[in-house]
Amino acid sequence: MRALVQRVSQAAVYVDGEPVAQIGPGVVVLVGVTHGDTEEQAAWLAHKVAGLRIFEDEAGRMNAGLLDVGGEALVVSQFTLYADARKGRRPSFTNAAPPEVAEPLVDHFAQTLAATGVPVQTGIFGARMLVQIYNDGPVTILLER
After folding, report:
1. Of 78, 112, 121, 122, which is the active-site residue?
2. Catalytic residue status for 78
3. Residue ranges of domains in the chain, CATH in brackets
4. pTM, whole model, 2 decimals?
5. Known catalytic membership, residue 80
């Protein structure tokens, strides 16, 4: 399981031109699921994101987490995190888990993150989404479990 975490000043998800999720300062978490991933891995990643110290403290150092700064999270399923483009020019997505496996794990990730106290919003699984991200820093961290 992979999570691409971006620190943002704000972010939103639109489907068919309509906003379905919006956050202020916090993180956008793009979540990819591969074959064999488990709820345990999803929970581990959620706790890792909740505690990830990528926000500035009073001294201006990246030493604060989401809960410390009152940040929000926008979770978006992203099967393309498992794209394999080593061969040819068209990526293969065979390493991405099928929707019936991925969707419950992305949901579990989002629910576990919310259970830590982080306000969480989500995109719509399987929808064609326009994700508006105002990357702050920029800070982008790839987590894998």
Report:
1. 78
2. yes
3. 2-144 (3.50.80.10)
4. 0.96
5. yes
